[in-house]
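Purpose: get a first structural picture of the assembly so the mutagenesis plan has something to point at.
Setup: two entries, given in the order below. No constraints added.
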Amino acid sequence: MSTILRPYLYLAGGIALVLVLNLLVGGIGSYDQRIVVNIGINMILAVSLNLVNGFTGQFSLGHAGFMSVGAYASAAFTTMVLPAASDPMSQGLYLIVALLVGGLAAAVAGLLVGVPSLRLKGDYLAIVTLGFGEIIRVILQNVSSLGGALGLANIPRHTTFLWVFIILVFVVFVIERVIRTTYGKGFLAVRDDEIAAEAMGVNTTRYKVVAFVVGAFFAGIAGGLYAHYNSLIKPDDFGFLKSVEIVVMVILGGMGSTYGVIFAAAALTYLPEWLRSFTMFGIKFSDFRMSIYSLVLIVLMLVRPQGLFGGFSFKGRRAAAKKAPIG
Amino acid sequence: MLSVQNLHVSYGAIAALKGISFNVPAGTVVTLIGANGAGKTTTLRTISGLVKASSGNVMFQDTDITNRPSHEIVKRGLCQSPEGRMIFPGLTVRENLMMGAYLRNDRKGIEQDMEYGFSIFPRLKERMKQAGGTLSGGEQQMLAIARALMSKPKLLLLDEPSLGIAPLLVKLIFEKITEINRDLGMTILLVEQNAHMALNVASYAYVLETGEITLEGPAKDLASNEEVQKAYLGM
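Result (structure tokens, whole complex):
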């Protein structure tokens, strides 16, 4: 298979898979559909945060903040600017426009936060991004034209299973493609050793800002999808806990492993829902499902600190090196 | 080719360099020797723009590059193999080398230079697809030098290539430094604690002590200088 065509075949395969699943999803109940759509949105969030935390090695704790900027911007755009859409065609079109508005708003927020704060490293960057998320939340709570603490309601429900997962496929495609180019290796170089990257002529600050802005853009799109699915968004939906949830998905999946992160996003979204109805030895686990959720996280981090799929490609490379002829 | 004049650098209140001056003429190997904390690494990092100078000048090919951003300095043809190797552990050997050529676009020239790197360090070719972090210390040092060469520098800065490497490999690496200088006519500024090895390959040397240059001269003369022998060569 030609190496130039291969990624596009993956892309086509991904889209085909989503189309097939879309037919199946019609057959399941609305409660399960909701879980599936939430999984998809969380996957987009986790994959985009992975670009910042996993590939570029910058610890951001403000992803829910960017998500909320995207959610509010796109929802405001739909409810205040766009006319009402009745047929599925214009609904889809309006959704795309609104998502782009949300994504761009989040990207601008990412730029504004990123440029001054990416000089900071490690814990300090985490604190600044955490602060940003909280600031956004408090601002939203106090802007009455956006609903204040009660939230923004009556957002048209344009988001469907199909849209969420088609967008997920594109996000994965873009990030996986970029990371494989020479340009994309710069992200990994910044993560691996910032001083060495700088000494090689890599403009490390620009890379960090690009990762931050692109990550924020995708988070904004995820926020837009969320807003147009739930019809009601509140500032509290995008609190600190949401940011932590996404970070946990990235860490659990394995920093820098896109597929690991996708898997973790699915598992961690589904687990609390599954525990709701799980009973064993006559005990209903729904009563303390969040404790079990935490317990699972602790055990997993003790057993696999590098994440479920972290170091996976690393081993793959070692195996490839063994197979390669020596000369 | 490189001329440093009255360079001062301080970390907060602590002065690391107290006005040092030296020259690296084109085509030569010049070494800067000194003990721990003398300011050797600071000097190199200031030259390549990783640390900012508080005063003084760094002139490279008659242009003032003092305190320019490091990606600009690399573009001008000055590349550093940093102390403690600092290879990218998560990237393969090949990807590490490609990062060295980050600012270049001539695919053919890049391939040629990679071949040259493999010819002086055949071990790297064997390990081409292996992650950099899985290499031994000596191999990582080879990779760091080869990677710096990938930017096709006019001046190569080597920061303590002997640090933490088996004595046999130290010998090999210094042989290769001579070879690179001879094959490519590469100008090299070598910073070393291992004065014995450094004075062997360099033509001119400076002795750095707590941020000041205390002694300079042709490497051969310094090697036979009594003070240097006592302080740095253990004789």
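The beta strands of chain B are 2-11, 14-24, 29-33, 55-60, 63-64, 78-81, 155-159, 187-192, 204-209, 212-218.
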